[in-house]
Specification:
With 186 residues, the protein is α+β, with helices and mostly antiparallel strands. The protein has a single domain, classed as Sortase (Sortase, Chain: A, Beta Barrel), CATH 2.40.260.10. The chain is built from two helices and nine strands; from the N terminus they run ααβββββββββ. Strands 2-3-4-5-8-9-7-6 form an eight-stranded mixed beta barrel. The radius of gyration is 20 Å and the shape is elongated.
Length: 186
């Protein structure tokens, strides 16, 4: 009788562990269920402070190089990233200021080219693998100048190089590999 009771306890504990693991996996995989309130608050501030951000209008002409920086709640923001096909709007921080649910400029700029923006695989960039070639991507700098891009391809890279793309959105898939969404300017 005691043996059966012991087996039941281990069975119940095993089922509980599996249920917790499944719930956590669902939490990570369901877009929009994670706490991204700081990112959304920053987007709201950007809509107030950056001309035409989040609208169909934009300022024409060339922007600044290097990119201007706007400090919002102690975070240096260089602009905002939008991918309408996956309903993504994210603040883009200056290099070295990566935060959860924020994208971050790694190198380059819309004017220099080789503009690389990185983000978290399980937060801000959790859905970029669903973006198809031809989809629109926009980056609006803090002056309100909007740069439009078109997705050309997506691929994995083991060795980092800057390739020949105007904009690359990236996240690390493991220690040595990046997922890259490559874009050209329109």
């Amino acid at each position: 009788m005691k043996r059966r009771s012991g087996k039941r306890i281990f069975l119940v504990i095993g089922i509980a562990i599996i249920a917790v693991a499944a719930a956590f996996a669902a939490y990570l995989l369901i877009p929009g269920k994670q706490d991204n309130s700081q990112s959304q608050e920053t987007i709201a501030s950007m809509e107030e402070l950056i001309p035409y951000f989040g609208t169909d209008q934009s300022i024409s002409g060339l922007g600044r190089d290097p990119l201007a920086v706007l400090s919002i709640d102690g975070t240096d923001i260089v602009g905002g990233l939008e991918i309408p096909s996956i309903n993504l709007r994210a603040p883009v921080t200056e290099k070295g200021q990566g935060k959860e649910y924020f994208a971050s400029r790694m190198t380059g700029s819309p004017i220099q080219g080789h503009f690389i923006i990185t983000g978290g695989r399980h937060d801000v960039f959790s859905r970029i693998t669903k973006v198809k070639p031809g989809a629109k991507v926009s980056f609006t700098d803090v002056d309100g100048v909007c740069y439009d891009y078109s997705v050309t391809t997506q691929f994995h890279k083991k060795k980092w190089d800057y390739a020949d793309h105007d904009l690359m959105l990236c996240y690390k898939t493991d220690k040595n590999t990046y997922f890259v969404l490559a874009c050209t300017s329109e």
